[in-house]
Amino acid sequence: MRAYYEQNRDEIDRLVASVDKDMTFPAHFHETVEIFATRKEGCTVTLNGIEYILNKNSVFIADSYDVHSYDDKSVGGNCMLTIPSRYVGGFKAFKGSRRIACPVIESEGLADKVFEITERLIIGCDDENVLRAATDLLFAFIEREITLENEGEKDDALIRKMLYYAQANYRDNASIAALSVKTGYSKEHLSRTFHKFMKRGFPDYVNSLRLDYIEKQMSMPPKKKLSSVILDSGFNNLQSYYLAKAKEREKSGELK
Q1: pLDDT tens per residue across span 165-185
Q2: What is the CATH number assigned to the segment(s) 155-252?
Q3: Superfamily of domain covering 4-150
């Protein structure tokens, strides 16, 4: 699975809501929690490599750093909320060390509440107190129907930790070896787990974050020296940068 970090979602730190929009998005992840409700059948979603075909009146929840995608080409009958961390504290406390057992909840009552709260209290609202009350109410309804289980050693929990570590440390010495020390897992297990979900190696993924950082920095004023930005991004030298860039182009089909 080729997933990208939707960094802008986390950077804007704003509650985003939409109703009856085209919901076709490739695999991505972010720190914010995403809630999707549908009143129709047939929408396909994935979470951490597992595919779900939603039935009518279903609610789908993607937790922080869950890798997820949507395929719903028929516009209408859906509702999407992207909720930043400052509104999710109560829900995180409710979960504790547990994880969501199944990301899909089939409940007409809950789906109706997602639509109602979104349309009546969230869309068009700029009042922070109202938005906080609305999200608290929404999570209260979710908590009544959601099933949680102990986090344990499941690979989907581990991949979230790996993605978070990569995002937080790519400009430093982010590596499987350092992550092995941090988590207590062997380097081999970490490498297998990452490749199973992401269909690429952890070092390549870290380098892709560095390349994205370089591209963003070079596109922003003031003008910067490329070699300085390369070293600031986490690459140890210019040769590593050019090798990583060539590898990314090969993967994207730009080179034969």
Answers
A1: 999 999 998 999 999 988 888
A2: 1.10.10.60
A3: Regulatory protein AraC (2.60.120.280)
